[in-house]
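Subject: Vitamin B12 dependent methionine synthase, activation domain

B.,
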Amino acid sequence: MNIEIDKKRVFKAIQLQEDSPAYKETNKLYDLLEKQIKHVVSPEIIYHLDHKLDVKVGKSYEDSQRSLYVVVTLGGKITESIATYFNENQYLKAYVMNALADGMLFSMVEISRQYVYEFAKENHMNLTEKLSPGDNIPLELQKPILEKIDPKGDLDIRITEGYMLDPEKSGAWMYGVYMGQSLDENKEHDCRGCHKKNCLWREENDEVNC
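Prediction pasted inline below.
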């Protein structure tokens, strides 16, 4: 899977500007770590059409017929690499590698959206807005979403006691599905209306999804 990382977005996330004294060193380090990170990630995108969860998360979901569950992950090695840099007191490397991983995960979410939309079109399905645990639905729903995707526990993804995904560089969400309808792609996330005003990946442009 070819995953592009938006360098400008990563530098914005770590609040690094071109006139910063640290820019030259960080830019050089970024180029080095961008090559390294591809050897310590195992990107996966999994989606699964199934029965709905018995939860109250909005009328659009309650009125839908089924659910489409999605999980993305970079695997566990990237988190181990970041931790190693921290343990070796290589804090800048750890910081930049972590931002790179977040940027890669951000790109994977966009790739997964393209996969999901193509699947929906092929199967004549319309989708609700993206329902993300900890964002617009309760964080606790990460557990049943993962269980729908991986009922036998075959994936190397777990839920912590705090309902976080492990490996850390992973994401899970779902859509309500209306069968026999055309896909409406206008339900995509608009950063300008998002309640996460301090999101480091936030953009004010209509065309960018965060």
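Residues 91-122 form the longest helix (32 residues).

T.
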